[in-house]
């Protein structure tokens, strides 16, 4: 169901435009009898309706008003003048006219349809999209002319999921380039709150009618059948057929696909001239459509013929060229010769389509007579009763760059392809490759599986003879992690280049710089050495494990390629956890060597998403290091990669400190080494692996500094005696309480005062010891901190307040304890292994994971994949600001929906009380 929230009209600012008109040219009037253009932009927006109404609605109204000041035809009307009484022709050419007070019809609505379903690539019913695009108002009769509205907007909210901006415009108003220029202006003004940035961009529209052509072309068009329909009062463009049984789907051709298709064409058609990606994609879709229509019986006879039609933008091809910001339509038709459907549907269909379509494009563009050759026949040829496929859109217009301030679109749909047998074509949101969108019979649906392809497996060692044989004893703070899962990290870096460029630049740089880095961080290239007891197994292991490096030891490094959606993976919205697991490397199996067991502890995987980016996946055994030491390695590696040498790193503060300077009772080591899982470590050891086919999704939630300050202010009202509370404590307590509430709803629980759960975090003791140890101390130097609470209280109305109070108190008491960090240390493992529901925390805001730059820019996203092993969240600063916090969660999909709703509703409720 669709519910209208508000119907309004948006005008340019008063007296900003005045009365203005824009004559239509031959390139505009050709579109008069055609259907309008209807587009949908889907944006993720996991917020409530009140928040949408308070933020998005006023912003879009205000920014649209300012935009219309510069693009006045969008606020105007098509003026069709009455014909003379003899009906021979029109009195004069139509025009777009704006008079003071003219406005755009804007509708704000709410929809209960599944947002995620609509934004997919899979087949979806066309009917579901029609209510989301606005309808142009009816024409009005005035003295001597008819006024026809040319543009309307509809913004539809899917509460706690997203919203869609629907645009409808009469094609006589403008082509795709002008429409995109309008949208770029609108988004710039919406993001920045003013038009200053837009005005300085040099993108102001050029309204001068600078294209010269024979006036006979106007007369030809104005006498075509169908033109007179717009001259009638009450005219409205044709509606979409709501009773259709069509579905729409999106198919992606990656650059790899296109390169392979081009290679196939060159092999089979060696004399073929240069063929563009656009040509290849169109020809491939055209031939596939012909094959499918033949299969379902819509093409039967040998005499069936069809044509393929596309529009060519002539702005840069006219002699002399006109500005890219020329306002209106400046496109001409390229029409293939009539081609037999049976040939297109045959084995050589793709070859024929590519040859025919490529030749038609090439001849049109290169014709010495220019763009106007045969222009008088364009409409006649397009209107012939011959089956045809048309193309809407162009990969040169980046529809996924349209960002109003709430992120780029998750999906774009050209709904008007449903009027006839057309396809839309755009650059993908994740790369410069091509996506085609078809509406078609459900019998034609297919399924696509994404794969990971290994490009290279190699091993990286430190430079020869730079380390020799070295070992690093494990301390009690390392031994405690022996029985726990490894740490998996994933960094997303934008890299808008093809795979060959990645192979030629990124791969050698990462290999070389990692080798030099390992020279200084030798434990990462080493192995965990465990010495099993020879006789009495009850005595534990013979001696303490150690990290050992011997000449020739190395790190397993994998380079791979993925066809998954890079931009989808690096989003904050809920994403299938299974998609991430192939991107993090596994640790290699243990092996028996003489008197000890050797366990690999570090591995790396770099996965390229051609023309989009690459991920850097790291896996390490937690006994190797904590977050601080791991970050020091990454700071060194990025510095060496960026500058090609370790000189800057050697002068920095990140050089690892290997001395085992922490003093503690030996009994703590013995306690760890006698644990049954530790005693069982042998050559059959395999670290835990993530379970694939999970039903979990992962999502990221951000608390900005403004949110944090308002929450602190609110807390001081609730707890006037509250001591200082850190942003970490506040954020974790808020997320913990929201998770508890969502779990109660998800599991259908009722309050049980006797059920207890815990919050567990670790505290870095480097600077808190007496005396402090170096910040660059290598290894683990953290201790646990547990906060118990009644589950019923945590999920109740006072859950957040109570959680803040208890977590803050526990952390303060632990840090300030006079007996130091080792108080109750003998119980740490016992408490870790207690059978009590516990929410753990991975990461720390004190380590800025977004400050890592290998030379291709800082990460666009960071994920701690290892939170999927159990109940845990990740906490880090954000990519936008070190003052903001981001929380990574992994939950069952239904619980994540509940959590998201609770998270934003509770936050908005608190903020509204403070504001």
Description:
About 1% of the residues have low confidence. The chain has three domains: 343 residues, Chloramphenicol Acetyltransferase (2-Layer Sandwich), CATH 3.30.559.10; 209 residues, 2-Layer Sandwich (Chloramphenicol Acetyltransferase), CATH 3.30.559.10; 218 residues, Chloramphenicol Acetyltransferase (2-Layer Sandwich). The protein is globular, with a radius of gyration of 32 Å. With 915 residues, it is an alpha+beta fold. It has 24 helices and 37 strands. Strand 18 and strand 19 form a beta hairpin.
Compact description:
The protein has 915 residues and is an alpha+beta fold.
First-last Cα distance: 33 Å
Poorly predicted runs are 440-450
Principal-axes shape call: globular
Largest sheet: 8 strands, mixed
CATH architecture term of the largest domain: 2-Layer Sandwich
Question: What topology emerges from the helices and strands here?
Answer:
Layout: E1 2-10, E2 20-23, H1 26-29, E3 37-45, H2 49-70, E4 77-81, E5 95-98, E6 104-111, H3 115-118, E7 124-125, E8 140-142, E9 145-149, E10 151-158, E11 161-169, H4 176-192, H5 196-199, H6 216-222, E12 247-253, H7 255-268, H8 277-295, E13 305-313, E14 331-335, E15 339-340, H9 341-344, H10 349-366, H11 378-382, E16 388-392, E17 411-414, E18 422-427, E19 434-440, E20 452-460, E21 470-473, H12 476-479, E22 487-494, H13 499-520, E23 527-531, E24 543-549, E25 555-562, H14 566-569, E26 575-576, E27 591-593, E28 596-600, E29 602-609, E30 613-620, H15 627-643, H16 647-650, H17 666-673, H18 676-679, E31 696-703, H19 705-718, H20 727-747, E32 756-764, E33 782-790, H21 791-794, H22 799-816, H23 828-832, E34 838-842, E35 861-864, E36 872-877, E37 885-892, H24 893-914
Parallel strand pairs: 6-10, 13-16, 16-18, 25-29, 32-34, 34-36
Antiparallel strand pairs: 1-6, 2-5, 3-11, 3-17, 4-5, 4-9, 7-12, 8-9, 10-11, 12-19, 13-14, 13-15, 18-19, 20-25, 21-24, 22-30, 22-35, 23-24, 23-28, 26-31, 27-28, 29-30, 31-37, 32-33, 36-37
């Amino acid at each position: 169901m669709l519910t209208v929230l508000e119907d309004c009209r948006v005008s340019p600012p008063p007296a900003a435009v005045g009365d203005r008109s824009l004559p239509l040219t031959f390139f505009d009037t050709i579109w008069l009898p055609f259907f309008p253009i209807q587009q949908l932009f889907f944006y993720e927006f996991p917020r409530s309706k009140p928040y949408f109404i308070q933020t998005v609605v006023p912003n879009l109204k205000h920014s649209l008003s300012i935009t219309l000041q510069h693009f006045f035809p969008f606020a105007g009307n098509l003026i069709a003048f009455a014909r003379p009484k003899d009906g021979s022709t029109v009195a004069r050419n139509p025009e777009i006219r704006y008079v003071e007070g003219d406005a755009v019809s804007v509708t704000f609505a709410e929809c209960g349809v599944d947002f995620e379903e609509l934004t997919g690539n899979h087949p979806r019913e066309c009917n579901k999209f029609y209510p989301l695009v606005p309808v142009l108002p009816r024409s009005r009769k005035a003295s001597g002319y008819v006024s026809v509205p040319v543009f309307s907007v509809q913004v539809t909210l899917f509460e706690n999921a997203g919203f869609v901006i629907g645009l409808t415009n009469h094609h006589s108003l403008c082509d795709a380039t002008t429409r995109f220029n309008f949208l770029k202006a609108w988004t710039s003004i919406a993001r920045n709150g003013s038009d200053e940035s837009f005005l300085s961009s040099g993108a102001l529209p050029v309204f001068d009618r600078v294209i010269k052509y024979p006036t006979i072309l106007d007369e030809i068009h104005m006498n075509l059948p169908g033109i007179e329909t717009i001259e009638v009062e009450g005219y409205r463009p044709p509606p979409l057929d709501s009773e259709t049984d069509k579905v729409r789907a999106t198919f992606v051709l990656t650059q790899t696909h296109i390169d392979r298709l081009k290679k196939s064409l060159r092999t089979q058609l060696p004399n073929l001239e240069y063929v563009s990606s656009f040509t290849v994609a169109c020809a491939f879709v055209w031939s596939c459509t012909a094959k499918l229509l033949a299969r379902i019986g819509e093409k039967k006879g040998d005499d069936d013929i069809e044509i393929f039609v596309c529009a060519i933008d002539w702005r840069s091809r006219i002699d002399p060229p006109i500005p890219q910001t020329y306002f209106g339509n400046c496109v001409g038709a390229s029409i293939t010769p009539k081609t037999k459907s049976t040939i297109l549907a045959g084995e050589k269909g793709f070859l024929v389509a590519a040859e025919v379509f490529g030749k038609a494009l090439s001849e049109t563009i290169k014709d010495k007579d220019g763009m106007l050759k045969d222009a008088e026949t364009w409409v006649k040829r397009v209107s012939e009763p011959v089956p045809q496929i048309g193309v809407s859109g162009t990969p040169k217009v980046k529809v996924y760059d349209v960002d109003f301030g709430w992120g780029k679109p998750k999906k774009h749909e050209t709904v008007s392809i449903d009027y006839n047998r057309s396809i839309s074509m755009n650059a993908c949101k994740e790369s410069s490759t091509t996506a085609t969108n078809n509406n078609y019979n459900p019998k034609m649906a297919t399924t696509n599986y994404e794969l990971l392809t290994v490009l290279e497996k190699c091993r990286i060692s430190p430079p020869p003879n730079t380390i020799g044989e070295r070992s690093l004893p494990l301390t009690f703070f390392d031994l405690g992690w022996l029985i726990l899962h490894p740490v998996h990290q994933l960094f997303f870096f934008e890299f808008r280049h093809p795979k060959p460029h990645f192979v030629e630049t990124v791969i050698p740089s990462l290999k070389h710089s990692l080798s030099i880095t390992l020279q200084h961080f030798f434990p990462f290239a080493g192995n965990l050495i465990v010495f099993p007891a020879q006789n009495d197994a009850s005595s534990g292991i013979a001696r303490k494990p150690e990290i050992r490096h011997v000449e020739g030891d190395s790190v397993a490094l994998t380079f791979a390629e993925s066809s998954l959606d890079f931009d989808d993976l690096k989003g904050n919205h809920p994403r299938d956890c299974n998609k991430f697991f192939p991107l993090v490397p596994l640790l290699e199996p243990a092996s028996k060597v003489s008197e000890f067991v050797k366990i690999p502890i570090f591995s790396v995987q770099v996965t390229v998403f051609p023309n989009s980016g690459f991920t850097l996946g790291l896996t390490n055994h937690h006994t190797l290091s904590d977050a601080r030491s791991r970050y020091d390695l990454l700071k060194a590696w990025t510095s060496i990669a960026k500058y090609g040498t370790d000189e800057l790193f050697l002068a920095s503060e990140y050089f690892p400190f290997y001395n085992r300077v922490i003093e503690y009772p030996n009994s703590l080591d013995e306690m760890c080494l006698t644990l049954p899982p530790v005693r069982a470590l042998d050559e059959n050891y395999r670290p835990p692996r993530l379970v694939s086919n999970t039903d979990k999704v992962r999502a990221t939630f951000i608390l900005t500094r403004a949110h944090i300050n308002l929450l602190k202010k609110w807390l001081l009202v609730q707890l006037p005696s509250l001591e200082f509370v850190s942003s970490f404590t506040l954020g974790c307590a808020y997320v913990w309480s929201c998770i508890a509430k969502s779990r109660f709803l998800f599991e259908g629980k009722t309050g049980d005062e006797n059920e207890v759960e815990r919050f567990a975090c670790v505290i870095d003791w480097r600077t808190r010891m007496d005396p402090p140890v170096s910040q660059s101390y290598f290894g683990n130097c953290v201790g646990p901190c547990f906060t118990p609470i009644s589950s019923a209280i945590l999920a109740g109305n006072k859950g957040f307040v109570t959680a803040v109070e208890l977590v803050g108190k526990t952390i303060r008491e632990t840090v300030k304890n006079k007996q130091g960090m080792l108080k109750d240390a003998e119980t740490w493992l016992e408490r870790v292994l207690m059978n009590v529901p516990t929410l753990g925390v991975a990461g720390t805001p004190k380590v800025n994971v977004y400050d890592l730059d290998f030379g291709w820019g800082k990460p666009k996203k960071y994920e701690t994949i290892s939170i999927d092993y159990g109940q845990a969240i990740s906490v880090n600063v954000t990519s936008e600001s070190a003052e903001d916090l981001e929380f990574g969660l992994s939950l069952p999909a239904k619980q994540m929906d509940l959590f998201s709703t609770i998270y934003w509703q509770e936050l908005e409720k608190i903020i509204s009380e403070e504001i």
